[in-house]
Design a protein that fits this description.
Strand content: under 5%
Radius of gyration: 20 Å
Number of strands: 0
CATH topology: Growth Hormone, Chain: A
Shape: globular
CATH architecture: Up-down Bundle
CATH class: Mainly Alpha
Helix content: over 70%
Number of helices: 19
Distance between the termini: 33 Å
Number of domains: 1
Structural class: mainly alpha
Length: about 425
C-alpha cells in the first residue's frame, strides 16, 4: 500500500503542474483583455513558458539523476506556486511573462521526477501500467483548469482565480514534504557527481542510444497536437472559430481527459503484454490524428458537434500515446541515466508545441486576427511535424533493432520494437 501512497502524492504534484500549465489556455481571452495582448503577443506569453519547460528538460534530468525525485518535486511545487501567486496580482505584461516562465521551470522538473519514482517503488511488470497512469491521471489538472478554475475566474475575477491556483500548489507542497521518499528504504539512489566533461559525455551517450531518439520522435509525433489544443488554442478555436459556448468548450476539454484516461489504461496494458508492437501503436495514433484533422479542416464552415467530439477524443489519445516514448527510454537506458533520457524524450513534443503555438499565432495575426479562416490556415502547420516524426520513428526503430542484435545486455522480449 505504501508504494501507491507515495506515488499518489507525487502524482498530485503532477496534477498541479498540468493544472498550472493549462490555466492560461482557458483564461486566454481574459489574459488578452487584462494585458491588452493580441494573438501573437498572447501566444508568446505561453510559448516562453514552454520554451523554459523544453530547454530545462536535459538539465532537469541531470539534476534528477544527481539528487533524486523528492528534491526536484519539492523545488518544482515551490516554483509553480510562487509563479501563480505573482501572476495573480500583476497587471504588467513583462512581469506576467516572467511569472509564467517561473511556472514553466517548476513544471519542467515535476513530471520526469514523478516518473523516476515508479521503477523504485513498483515491480517491473507494473511499471508500464503505472507509467501510463501517471501521465493520464495527471491530466485531471486540465479538468480542474477547465471547470472549477474557469468558474472561479468568471465569478470572482483574475486575482482570486490565480491566487486559488497558488494555494492548491502550496497544499501539494506540504503533502510532498510529509510523504514522498525516493526509494522504499529512504536512500537517494542517485548517481555520483560528475565533472562538466563527464556530464557532456553522458548526455551525448544517452542521446546516441537509438531507443532514446525513438522515444523522442514518439513523444514529438503523438503529443504536440493535444498539447497545443489544451494549452493555448483549443478554447479560442472552439468558441470563436467553431461557435461553441464557453461551457460546451469546457465540456469538450473535460472529455479530452476522460478519453486520455480510458485509452491510456488500454495502451499501458497492451504495451506491457506486447512490447514488440509499441512503435506500431505510435504510428497508428499519429495517423489517426492526421486523418481526423484532415476531415475537420476540409470543411468550409464550422464542424458539427459530433465531429468536434470525435476530433477531441482522437487527438487526446496522443497524450497517453506519448508515454510510450518514456517506455522506450526506460528499456534502452540504465537507471543511473534514466532521468537524462526521460528529459530528452520529454523535449520532443514540447519543442514542436512551442514552435507551432508561436507560428499559429503569427499566421492568425497575418490573417487579421482570430477567426475561422485564420485558424483553418494555422492548424495545417501540423502536417510538417507529423511527417518529420514518422520519418524519425522509422529510422530510429531500424537502428534500435540493429542494436538488439549486438547488445545482449537487454532481454529481447522487453525491448524489441
Amino acid at each position: 500500500m505504501r508504494p501507491w501512497i507515495v506515488w499518489a502524492t507525487g502524482l498530485l504534484a503532477y496534477i498541479v503542474a498540468v493544472f498550472d500549465r493549462t490555466t492560461l489556455g482557458v483564461s486566454g481571452l481574459a489574459a488578452a483583455e487584462r494585458f491588452s495582448a493580441g494573438p501573437t503577443v498572447l501566444s508568446m506569453f505561453v510559448v516562453l513558458q514552454v520554451v523554459v519547460y523544453a530547454c530545462a528538460q536535459v538539465p532537469a534530468g541531470l539534476l534528477l539523476d544527481r539528487y533524486g525525485s523528492r528534491v526536484l518535486i519539492v523545488s518544482g511545487a515551490t516554483l509553480m506556486a510562487s509563479g501563480q501567486l505573482a501572476l495573480a496580482f500583476t497587471e504588467s505584461l513583462p512581469a506576467a511573462v516572467a511569472a509564467r516562465a517561473v511556472v514553466g521551470l517548476g513544471d519542467a522538473v515535476t513530471f520526469i521526477s514523478v516518473l523516476r519514482l515508479v521503477p523504485h517503488w513498483f515491480a517491473p511488470r507494473q511499471i508500464p501500467v503505472v507509467t501510463q497512469l501517471t501521465g493520464i491521471v495527471g491530466q485531471l489538472g486540465q479538468v480542474l483548469s477547465a471547470v472549477p478554475f474557469l468558474a472561479i475566474l468568471s465569478a470572482a475575477g483574475w486575482s482570486v482565480a490565480y491566487a486559488s491556483a497558488a494555494a492548491f500548489g502550496a497544499l501539494s507542497l506540504v503533502l510532498i514534504l510529509l510523504i514522498v521518499k525516493n526509494t522504499p528504504d529512504g536512500s537517494a539512489a542517485t548517481a555520483e557527481a560528475m565533472s562538466v566533461r563527464e556530464t557532456l559525455t553522458s548526455v551525448k551517450t544517452v542521446w546516441l542510444r537509438p531507443g532514446t531518439r525513438l522515444g523522442f520522435f514518439t513523444h514529438m509525433g503523438t503529443q504536440f497536437s493535444i498539447t497545443i489544443f489544451a494549452l493555448m488554442w483549443g478554447l479560442p478555436y472552439l468558441t470563436v472559430a467553431q461557435g461553441l459556448s464557453a461551457g460546451a468548450a469546457g465540456a469538450l476539454l473535460s472529455l479530452s481527459v476522460a478519453t486520455a484516461i480510458a485509452s491510456g489504461i488500454l495502451i499501458g496494458v497492451f504495451t506491457g503484454r506486447y512490447p514488440h508492437r509499441r512503435s506500431w501503436i505510435v504510428l497508428g495514433i499519429i495517423g489517426s490524428n492526421a486523418l481526423v484533422w484532415t476531415v475537420v479542416l476540409s470543411l468550409s464552415g464550422p464542424a458539427p458537434l459530433w465531429l468536434l467530439v470525435v476530433l477531441v477524443a482522437v487527438i487526446s489519445v496522443g497524450g497517453p500515446g506519448s508515454m510510450v516514448g518514456f517506455d522506450f527510454a526506460r528499456t534502452f537506458n540504465t537507471r543511473a541515466t534514466l532521468g537524462t533520457a526521460q528529459g530528452m524524450v520529454n523535449m520532443g513534443g514540447f519543442l514542436v508545441s512551442l514552435i507551432l503555438m508561436q507560428a499559429m499565432g503569427m499566421v492568425m495575426e497575418a490573417q487579421g486576427g482570430i477567426s475561422f479562416d485564420s485558424f483553418r490556415q494555422a492548424w495545417t502547420l501540423q502536417y510538417a511535424v507529423w511527417a518529420l516524426a514518422v520519418l524519425g520513428i522509422l529510422v530510429t526503430r531500424r537502428k534500435a533493432r540493429r542494436q538488439l542484435e549486438k547488445d545482449d545486455r537487454f532481454l529481447l522480449e522487453d525491448i524489441k520494437t
